[in-house]
Structures are given as structure tokens and as C-alpha cells.
Write a structure and sequence with these properties.
Layout (H helix, E strand, L loop, with lengths): L10 H15 L29 H6 L10 H9 L8 H24 E2 L2 E2 L2 H7 L11 H20 L7 H26 L12 H8 L2 H4 L11 H29 L5 H9 L6 H12 L4 H10 L10 H26 L2 H9 L4 H12 L1 H17 L2 H6 L6 H10 L5 H26 L21 H29 L1 E3 L3 E4 L2 H7 L1 E4 L2 E4 L4 H31 L5 H13 L2 H11 L11 H24 L5 H8 L4 H9 L4 H17 L4 H4 L7 H10 L3 H26 L11 H5 L1
Length: 738
């Protein structure tokens, strides 16, 4: 038997073998009742108390004997250390150990629940179990991770993806977490579309709900109401086109113009994304509603009767354009900055004027960003329900129909699931249309060669309309936010306009006592919980999204298209469906996290991850693969190349992922409504509670506070991440302009 004497075992392999044994023998196997972050168990009966015992101690006490088979794969992993990495037995043992351990944990996790066996046939075959198990804890998570990465190292040793351990492990890790936290809960929810009233499954019940006139009706052609599906599709296309155009206009003003107040413009583009959507809706009602300031002024000026024109398609379109333009801007700013100045200078050297350079060189190289910006705007519009809920009127869309199917008196999970399938069909169709439009053309602009160029300014004929549109939209945004701030300092918004700060005092009062600061305001608990959850979720979201983007743009492997589909699936499903599906999936073992802060963090990671993926793909499409190849040629592995070469060039994408995931965690509504608990209450659920109690002043004051907090956070992230500067020269813009 060959012994691994010359070739020492890889440190990463030793790490995961040790981690597996630590998870099995030292850490509590099942979830701690006091919460994931509670460590009172260390002095409360550990390691012999059944609630806190590691798997090894449970087995030693004759408990939970279904865990004992895990000793076999753990032992096999140690045995693999006797072989060299080039030996076939090395890879076979690691694959066997990882596959056996991970498979057994899945089988026993789903087979045994809090009431014994989960399947009737198991009771018939083996008799009542007489025992039960809870959700996985520290030990089970660490051990499952160890088995997973032992398996991926074995697969890499067999030559998969050129034997690259980092790439294979990253692919395996992303597949598992996307399957666990996207496919599994959504599948559990969508199966409800085929469930009959008596609990059996039937295809007929699905078709009965699918062909409902409220979904596909074409009454709008005869002057009545259209089906929710057509309304959603038309609205999403408009929002995608308008937000992409506005996002590009703002990106060009910030990067390709001599405008003095670029920072102010940049701040104005970010404002809507850091605001709970129903607050924008309320501000629009105050401006353009039946008794709104602008509506009354125009009615008196022209002597016309005020109308309710805002409610329906116009109001929802304005609100969603306000809310989602920042997403397009955050995606496009990195792409516009990433176009190599040398290519534009080469066109000018060949006697092309500034307009020809922009039209034939710059704009075509921005196509990945334009496509991704449209896709995100389309999907966001499809999944949004806050704005249609406030401003929709009789304009039915799929997301609100899903919401009412779930939370309404009907509580029809089957109808909600059918509607979700229709919505998913539209969003995936947009996804594949985007890919077809991009085709297989190369958009590489950043290569390994030095680039000391500087981006040319926009042609004059383009700069004037672009600047006019950007400034007009920025002014409109400023007016909307002025109304929001105004609403937070009046006694009763729209009724009694006496100025007061009582809403801020009620929400955020502080008392200084001998024992220290006492947070006496009513909103502090939800505020600190929201900050904590968002701060944890944001970097994890960015990390998962950018690693996924790296795999999609830099690696070729079997099932790549399905892999990409999985990463976008959570973004295409409305948050209401995500929330309900998470409750259904994670309220019982093996993953029992309902009511904890973990379920909020997980939902934010996988709900917002696609933004990091799309921003990363758009930016990486511009970075020449020769940079990776040069790094690998010089002896670096894929992890070192990713960390030292790729990541520094992805600062715009990193910033976009961090900013978006942080502020969406702070302002998310749809999924949060279902996932909050008494211990983990989020800001948006607290604000909605105030709105339901007609306490609009406190709700607006809280929202305004969140806006300023997130503005500070965005500025801090911008400072920490920095920006990519492709050229070494800078515009001397103001001096030349003057």
C-alpha cells in the first residue's frame, strides 16, 4: 500500500478533515434553543446534556444512533492521507468519504423529524421510532461542510476543471447553497399548485387555476381590465427600458461630462434605492394624488377638475422608475468606467469624430451593462409589490395577486404558486432574450497591456439632452424626497401641517442615566436589529455573488447554464413567495431556522445575490482572460489569481453588490413580513405596523432616519472599496472648461 511520504497532504485537506472530526466530536450537533449566537451551552450541561451534546457523546450515551454511520466516512478521509495526490486511491477515498457522509446526512435529516419518521412507509417497515431530532446545529453544519469539500477535493483530484481545487470547491459550494436555499424552498412552495382540497396531487387543478381570466384576460382590448399577466409584462418592459436609459444618462454625466456637481448627481441617483417603496408611493400621492399639491395647483390654475390619474399604470410606472433607476446606474457606472480609453483614442486617431467614437466604439462595448441593467429592471418590476399595492388601483399585477392570494381571506397557496410560475416564465424569458441579444461577441476592453488613456467627453449633441434628462430627473427626485422629509416634521401629513419633531422623539429618544445610555425610543430595537442583519448579510451577499460571477465568466464546466439559471431564480420570484416558501421549508428539520435572525440573513443573501452576479458578469466581461492566464503561468493558483488580479479590478462591481445588498436588507418588505419574529423585528415591518395604525408621522420619520443612515453607509462603503482607474491621466476639466 503506497504511503504518502514524499508528497505531504494539502493543508486545505487537513483543515477539512479536522473540521469534520471537530463538528462530530466537539460541537453541539443540533440547534441551540437559545439561538445561534448564544454560547450559554458551554456552562449548561455541555457536553452530556442531550440538547447540547456533540454527535460522538450522543452515540456514546445510546442516543441518536442514526448518526453512528458517519464514523465510516470520517475514518475514510483520514485513511486518504496515506496516499499521494497523484494516486488514484487518493481521489477515490475522498469522493467516497465525501459522498457517503453528505448523502447520509441528507437522508437521515429528511427521514427523521420532530415526530419521529417523516414517512408513513418507514413506520410500516421499521415500526414507530420512539425518538426525534431537531434542526442541525454547529456540529452538523461543520460536518456537512467538511463532507462537501472532501467530495469536491476528490473530484478535483480526478481531473475535473483541470484539477483546480478552488474552482471545483466553489462550484460545489454554490450549487449546494443555491439548492438548499433557493430550489428546495421554492419547489416546496410551487408543489402547492398541484395540491387539491383533499391534499392529493392533480394536474387538472393546476390548469384550472392557470387559465383563469384574471391572469390572461384581454378585456383591455374591449375597454375593460386586462389580465394581471399582461399588465405585469407591459409594465416590466417599460420600466426596464426607462430605467436603463436613465441609468445610462446618469452614468455618462458622472463619467463623461464636465458637469461640476457630479457627486450631487451621484447621490441623487442612489436616494430612491435606500427608501422603503411605499414611502415613495405616499410622497407621490401627496404630490399628484386627488388632493395632492401639484394636482390642486394645476386644477386651480387651469380651472379643471382634479382626477385620480396617478392610480394605475402611470403611478406605478413613476414609482418603479424612481425606485429601480439606481440599480441600472450601479450596474452601468462600472461598465462605463471600464471601457478602455485606448480604444476610444484609437478611433479618434483614425479621424473619427466624438459622436462616431461614442456610437461605434463606446456604446457597443457597454452592451453587457445595458443588457444586465434592463434585465434587473425588468425582474425588479415583476417582483415588486409595494408600489403596485399603494398606487395600483385597478391595475392588477402578478405580484399583488400573489400577495392577496397568500395573506387574503382566501389563503390559496395553489393560486399563489400558479401566479408565481407565470411570473417566473416571464422573467426567465427576459433572461434568455438578454443572452441572445449579447450573443457570443467579445466585449473585452481591459487587457494586460498598460493603458494611460483618458475617457473622452460625450459629443456635444449628446451631452446636452443627456444632461437635461439627468438634471430633470434629479430635480424630480429631490422634490419627492423633500416631501418625505416634510411629512416627517408635520403634525399629521396632509391634514395638520404644524411643524413638530415629536415623531422623531417618539421613535428615537435617548436617556442618559448613571448606568449609561438608555435607548427609550420605540423604534430602537428594530433599528439595531436591522443594522446588524444588514451588516452581516451585505458582505456575504457580495462574496457569493462575485464568486458565482467569476465561475460563470472564467470557467467552463458541465451544467453551466443550469448553474446560472439557479443563481437568478430567487430574484425572479416575488419576495412574498420567498417568505412563505422559507417558512414552509425551514420550520422543521433538518434546517430549522424560522423565527431566528439566520433566516433573515439567508433570505437577504439569496434574494439579493443576483445583483452581485450580474454586476460581476458585466465587469468581468471587460477583463481579458490573458490576465488570468499570465497569473497562472507565473505560478499562482486560481484562488490567488482571483484574489490578487481579478478582485482589484472589480471594485465597481463590489461596491454595487455591497451597496445594493445592504440597502435592500434595510428596506426589504415582502419577504420580511413573513420572516420577522418578536425577537427579530425589522425596520420595514415596524414601519408597516405604524402605517396600519394610521401613525404616518412616525412611519415617515423612521423612514427618513433610515435614508440618512444608509446615505452615510453608502458613503463609507464607497470610501472603503475605492474605485477603479483604468487610465493614469486625469481630466483637467474645470480649468479647460473655463
Amino acid at each position: 500500500m503506497p504511503v504518502n511520504s514524499k508528497n505531504t497532504a494539502p493543508p486545505v485537506l487537513i483543515f477539512w478533515i479536522i473540521a469534520g472530526w471537530v463538528g462530530f466530536g466537539l460541537l453541539p450537533w443540533y440547534g441551540i434553543e437559545d439561538g445561534f449566537w448564544s454560547f450559554d451551552w458551554l456552562v449548561d450541561g455541555y457536553p452530556f446534556d442531550e440538547d447540547y451534546a456533540p454527535a460522538a457523546f450522543l452515540i456514546a450515551q445510546g442516543e441518536k444512533l442514526w448518526l453512528s454511520p458517519l464514523l465510516l466516512p470520517l475514518g475514510l478521509s483520514v485513511f486518504a492521507l496515506r496516499y499521494s495526490k497523484s494516486d488514484a486511491a487518493y481521489s477515490r477515498l475522498l469522493v467516497l468519504a465525501g459522498a457517503l457522509g453528505f448523502s447520509w446526512m441528507i437522508i437521515q435529516g429528511f427521514s427523521i423529524g420532530i415526530r419521529g419518521y417523516n414517512f408513513a412507509w418507514m413506520n410500516d417497515a421499521f415500526g414507530p421510532l420512539g425518538d426525534r431530532q431537531y434542526g442541525m446545529g454547529y456540529g452538523a453544519m461543520v460536518c456537512a461542510s467538511a463532507f462537501l469539500f472532501l467530495l469536491t477535493q476528490g473530484i478535483a483530484a480526478r481531473g475535473a476543471v483541470n484539477g483546480d481545487v478552488f474552482v471545483v470547491s466553489a462550484i460545489g459550494g454554490v450549487i449546494v447553497i443555491v439548492t438548499a436555499f433557493v430550489f428546495f424552498p421554492i419547489a416546496k412552495m410551487l408543489f402547492a399548485a398541484f395540491v387539491t382540497d383533499d391534499g392529493t396531487y392533480s394536474v387538472l387543478v393546476f390548469f384550472d387555476k392557470f387559465f383563469d381570466d384574471r391572469i390572461w384576460g384581454l378585456g383591455c382590448l374591449a375597454g375593460s381590465r386586462c389580465g394581471a399577466a399582461w399588465n405585469s409584462l407591459f409594465l416590466a418592459i417599460l420600466v426596464g427600458l426607462i430605467t436603463t436609459a436613465l441609468g445610462l444618462a446618469f452614468a455618462l454625466v458622472v463619467t463623461r461630462s464636465g458637469f461640476r456637481y457630479k457627486r450631487l448627481i451621484r447621490a441623487m441617483t442612489v436616494l430612491p434605492i435606500i427608501t422603503p417603496p411605499f414611502v415613495i408611493g405616499l410622497a407621490l400621492i401627496l404630490l399628484f394624488g386627488l388632493s395632492g399639491t401639484v394636482t390642486v395647483f394645476i386644477a386651480e390654475l387651469f380651472g379643471v377638475q382634479p382626477t385620480r390619474w396617478l392610480y394605475g399604470l402611470p403611478g406605478v410606472l413613476i414609482a418603479q422608475t424612481l425606485a429601480f433607476t439606481p440599480i441600472a446606474f450601479l450596474v452601468l457606472i462600472g461598465v462605463v468606467e471600464g471601457v478602455s480609453p485606448s480604444m476610444e483614442e484609437a478611433a479618434q486617431t483614425l479621424r473619427a469624430n466624438s459622436w462616431q467614437t461614442f456610437r461605434t466604439v463606446s456604446l457597443p462595448l457597454m452592451r453587457p451593462g445595458l443588457a444586465n441593467a434592463f434585465l434587473l429592471g425588468f425582474i425588479e418590476s415583476m417582483a415588486d409589490f409595494g408600489n403596485p399595492l399603494v398606487l395600483g388601483g385597478n391595475f392588477d399585477v402578478l405580484s399583488t395577486e400573489i400577495f392577496f392570494a397568500i395573506v387574503g381571506a382566501q389563503y390559496d397557496q395553489g393560486r399563489a404558486a400558479v401566479l408565481a410560475m407565470v411570473l417566473l416564465f416571464f422573467t426567465l424569458s427576459a433572461f434568455y432574450a438578454q443572452r441572445a441579444w449579447l450573443g457570443k461577441k467579445s466585449y473585452t476592453t481591459v487587457s494586460g497591456k498598460g493603458d494611460a488613456g483618458v475617457h473622452p467627453l460625450m459629443p456635444q449633441g449628446l451631452a446636452i439632452p443627456v444632461l437635461a434628462v439627468a438634471l430633470a430627473w434629479a430635480v424630480f427626485t429631490a422634490v419627492v424626497y423633500a416631501m418625505i422629509v416634510y411629512g416627517s416634521v408635520v403634525e399629521l401629513w396632509g391634514v395638520n401641517n404644524s411643524l413638530t419633531f415629536k415623531h422623531y422623539v417618539t421613535a428615537f429618544s435617548v436617556r442618559f442615566e448613571e448606568e449609561g445610555i438608555r435607548w427609550t425610543g420605540a423604534a430602537w430595537d428594530s433599528f439595531w436589529t436591522t443594522i446588524t442583519i444588514a451588516a452581516i448579510a451585505a458582505p456575504l451577499t457580495a462574496a457569493v455573488g462575485l464568486v458565482t460571477a467569476y465561475l460563470l465568466t472564467r470557467q467552463s464546466f458541465a451544467g453551466k447554464n443550469a448553474f446560472e439559471f439557479g443563481t437568478m431564480l430567487s430574484f425572479a420570484i416575488p419576495g412574498t413567495v420567498i417568505g412563505v416558501s422559507y417558512i414552509l421549508a425551514f420550520n422543521v428539520p433538518p434546517i430549522e431556522i424560522t423565527g431566528t435572525g439566520i433566516i433573515l440573513v439567508v433570505s437577504f443573501i439569496f434574494r439579493n445575490m443576483p445583483v452581485g452576479v450580474r454586476a460581476g458578469i458585466a465587469s468581468m466581461s471587460q477583463i481579458d482572460k490573458s490576465l488570468d492566464e499570465s497569473s497562472l503561468t507565473l505560478g499562482a493558483n486560481s484562488w490567488q489569481t482571483f484574489r490578487r488580479v481579478i478582485l482589484p479590478l472589480l471594485r465597481p462591481a463590489i461596491l454595487a453588490a455591497l451597496v445594493y445588498s445592504f440597502v435592500r436588507a434595510m428596506t426589504a418588505i415582502s419577504a420580511v413580513i413573513f420572516l420577522v419574529s418578536a425577537e427579530y423585528d425589522m425596520a420595514t415591518s415596524y414601519i408597516i405596523g405604524r402605517v396600519e395604525n394610521n401613525d404616518y408621522g412616525l412611519a415617515i420619520a423612521y423612514s427618513t432616519t433610515l435614508i440618512f443612515v444608509m446615505l452615510a453607509a453608502v458613503g463609507l462603503l464607497q470610501l472603503l472599496v475605492g474605485r477603479v482607474q483604468i487610465g493614469r491621466r486625469k481630466h483637467i476639466e474645470m480649468k479647460e472648461a473655463s
